[in-house]
Task: structure prediction
Amino acid sequence: MAIRYNQEHKVFTLQTKHSTYQMKVDSYGFLLHLYYGGRVDGSMDYLLTCYDRGFSGNPYDVGGDRTYSMDVQPQEYPVMGMGDFRNTALIIRDKDGIAGSDLRYVSHTISKGKYALKGLPAVYASEEEAETLEIILEDCVSKVRVRLLYGVLEQDDMITRSAEITNEGTDEIMVEKAASTCLDFLSGDYDLLSFWGRHAMERNFQRREIVHGSHVIGSRRGTSSHQYNPAVILAGKGTTEDYGNCYGMVFVYSGNFMCEAEKDQFEQTRVILGLHSDLLHYPLEPGEALVVPETILSFSDRGLGELSLQFHRCIRNHICRGKYRDEPRPVLINSWEAAYFDFTGETICRLAQDAAELGIDMVVMDDGWFGKRDDDNSGLGDWQVNEAKLGCTLGEMIQKINGMGVKFGIWIEPEMISEDSDLYRQHPDWVLHIPDRKPLRCRNQLVLDFSREEVRDFIFGKICSVLDQGNIEYVKWDMNRSIAEVYSPENAPGKAAYAYVAGVYDFLEKLLCRYPNLLIEGCSGGGGRFDAGMMYYTPQIWCSDNTDAVDRIRIQYGTSFLYPVSTVGSHVSAVPNHQTGRSTSLHTRGVVAMAGTFGYELDPDKLTAGEKEEVKEQVKQYKKYAELIHKGDYYRLSNPFRDPFAAWEFRAEDGERVLLHVVMLEAHANMAVSYVRLKGLEREGIYEAVETGKRYYGSALMEAGIPMPVQQGEYLAYEMELVKVRG
Ligand code: GLA
Result:
């Protein structure tokens, strides 16, 4: 039993393999948080203390007891209005604008399996793998009801949380802030690890001490954003890759979010993760409900490396769905950096011909195939194939490509519209905009109001009529701007941002229902919507528009803390790199792109005969390792922001095989030797390097490492496969 309720003490215990999460209904009906961390036994309510604290008020029903205050007690779902002056999980205003809530326990249920969220992505699991706890809290004055949901995947060390807020009263209420998770820690010093960035430089790693005051990250851009990823880690001060306590929090949502971390006046730490309050002003009519997207939580007492593995497995097996959750992803060649808008049907067929010769599985026709779209100023919304540009119908082109033994994929950007498009001329009112104001242009495009069913249905019809023209096995779903105008005539102003994301999910779900075997790769100017919400529909996401191998090492490093390699869209591109102007060897580019879904983003005709041979080898190599890379355990072996080399390792699930990749980041005269230490090996096991036949003890490889060659050259990459010859 992963979830237990102790009737006598009114204590809920959620137990996973290595962690315990506990909460308690106290004598006043408040749901207090007791503990989250390494496995413990017994009730942790002895941790609660009560003292008379100045300026910390006391709920009326505690009578003359001046020691009991919500300002100090650790809570599961703190609300604004009960004397908790810290950041709270929920702010509700009544019809008169008054923010006063008081949530008390009503009932709970424990059931087998994992709850699902209507219209929202969420972790899924079988009845055997998960249990659900549902706790109902209610405000007896306003009749606001909060349904707290907890999913426990015991063996996976995962706990999920969500909340549903229902207006059971008779007047409209306004939800001003809603989070799915609050974590309160009674003591300890923590760092917040977050992943910030910008277009083409996503998910830089930042580690910052949580001090007094509030550290807030989030997105107001309508998407989860390049700027902050909706996932954080809370780590003990001394926690490293291999040692110490840490907690991961991943928001399963692709829109505005907010994470607040604060240390309070009594040195207690609170972290809240949920919807961004700046853009939430969500009216609930009597009987209406708001579902707050889910947070996935996990704890590790074995450092950040182990925490990452737990999230990798969870997202791979319990978020990603469909055929490509388990099947190998096609190695693809994409036309974007090969030709940009400057292509014809012949160009795409030539890429397919090259693909066939090089062993690449699929050709993807990127932006520029529809409407009037020879640059990025027009055509979005007009999802009609530009047959004049292709020189044939799409169906004919696909047949030709398939005839070469190559699969075909296509780029779309359904949420967008160009002012210079037939669709805009017909339906200017379909665009997200604020009445009487001019909309913000970004990449010269506007955003379609995907919160409106009629708009979605129209685009859906258009996209399907393209997809029905031939054997299209892959779609790259792009989204190339932030959303500034959060107003929709069909949705109350403060609902629009949420309704927009729900609309995107609805569209994706319908698309997958109609084309269950379609592989969708998410994209938003690269990694602007790289989140677990999208991964529920798109098991891979173009990780960044930056394909420079050296920058990618750092982008993929940051990404790896919470997301599995199988979700990371990564390609080999031409040199000098189009984003940085840097040149690296084909080998180095290959090694870096292999820590992802792998493919090419270049024109093979510009490669020398020797390079083509090398590409053939790379593709073979990748296919040989694909299963190990996607399903194996991924270990970070260095910090590329600090160390002179980047190193990572893939270890087969059964531990029998290991693939080590290293890229030197510095070049100096008379270099010092770099030693790379492996992880996750069997200490007594003997491992043989496939290329040299040399044998090493697992303990030696992990404790002392292996020396990297000292060679001249920039960004040299090394690969080493090791097989276990004796356990
Ligand atoms: C975005 C994507 C690119 C490419 C272009 C096409 O920037 O991230 O990969 O598809 O759009 O316009």
Remarks:
- Residues 336, 366-367, 376, 411, 478, 480, 523, 525-526, 542, 545 surround alpha-D-galactopyranose (CB under 6 Å).
- Residues 609-631 form the longest helix (23 residues).
